[in-house]
Amino acid sequence: MNVETTKLPLWKAGLLHLYYHGSWPIRWSQNWLRSTRGRAPIMVLFYHRIAPVADDPWTCSNKVFVRQIRWLRAHFDLVSLTEAQQRIRRGENDRPCVSITFDDGYADNCREALPLLIREQVPCTYFVTVRNVFEGEPFPHDVARGKPLQPNSIEELKSLAASGIEIGAHTRTHADLGRVADPQRLYDEIVVAGEDLQQALDTPIRYFAFPYGHPNNMSAMACRIAHDAGYEGICSAYGGFNFPGDDAFHLQRIPVDNDLIRLKNWTTVDPRKERTPRFKYQCRPHALGPCGVYTP
Ligand SMILES: [Zn+2]
């Protein structure tokens, strides 16, 4: 079966094509200017599940994924999160770059998508929800829709880590941390879960991604806990760019779905989305400098 049910409706895809090509001259000149001024964007993409059939909004088909990776490879530097942070902190970046991440930890990703990235040496950070991968329990959002999908096993994650995929933490229970006010619970979801994962995989867990990842799913306290625990970076998921000189601790990510035109539209910097307001978190001045700006 080769149905791609979450593709854009034809009329929407047609409009997006028109918009993309119509705004191409302005994009081209803006991107050229940014690059010559050392202001090229540092983009972090996030996927969830890659499978033979894209049968829900967070799944991309293997076929489309391959086309997306080929297109990205031809147009951008593909970099790790560490390299992305270095380019942000350097305050200068003359080539647009993309870092690939995944959230949750679906077993299906191990069949074709991750082997492709490993084979082609495309850096990737893979965020997993600890309880699901420890206990083999399907994710609550899949159970709720009557389609319990298999999460990754610890053995799979060990093998990914050994192949160069960076494993990151995505809480213990996939909780909406914007709704958790109890510091102990936050500490467990963010820090202890990461430590448990580190111990189980015997590999450093250096990055943390917020479930759902919109501003209302994050909190200043959660950001501070992640920072003080020694995470090197946190990821949101509301769709935003990173530019040289931005806060490198908080990486804004861009969603990817089962469509190439939407990916092209984002990564060539859709003028409408360039200035997405950045989630601000209040920090202790001695630790982080001005609010939300991490200084190593
Ligand atoms: Zn998630």
Question: In terms of per-residue confidence, which ranges show pLDDT below 50 for 5 or more consecutive residues?
Answer: 1-5, 285-296
Query: What is the percentage of strand-forming residues?
Result: 5-15%
Judged by helices, strands and strand pairing, the structural class is: alpha/beta
Give the number of DSSP strands.
11
In quaternary terms, these chains amount to single chain
CA distance, first residue to last residue = 50 Å
Number of helices: 12
Q: Categorize the overall geometry.
A: globular
Give the % helix.
Answer: 25-40%
Largest sheet, in brief, is: 6 strands, parallel
Average pLDDT number: 92
Give the radius of gyration. Answer: 19 Å
Give the distinct bound molecules: zinc ion
The arrangement of helices and strands along the chain is HHEEEHEHEHEHHHEHEHEEEHH
Q: What can you tell me about this protein's structure?
A:
Helix 5 links the parallel strand 5 and strand 6. The radius of gyration is 19 Å and the shape is globular. Helix 1 packs parallel to helix 11. It has twelve helices and eleven strands. The chain is α/β, with parallel strands linked by helices and 296 residues long. The protein starts with 9 loop residues before the first helix and ends in an 8-residue tail after the last helix. Strands 1, 4, 5, 6, 7 and 11 form a six-stranded parallel beta sheet that branches. It has a three-stranded parallel beta sheet with strand order 8-9-10, covered by helices on one side. The site of zinc ion (ZN) has 5 residues, from loops.
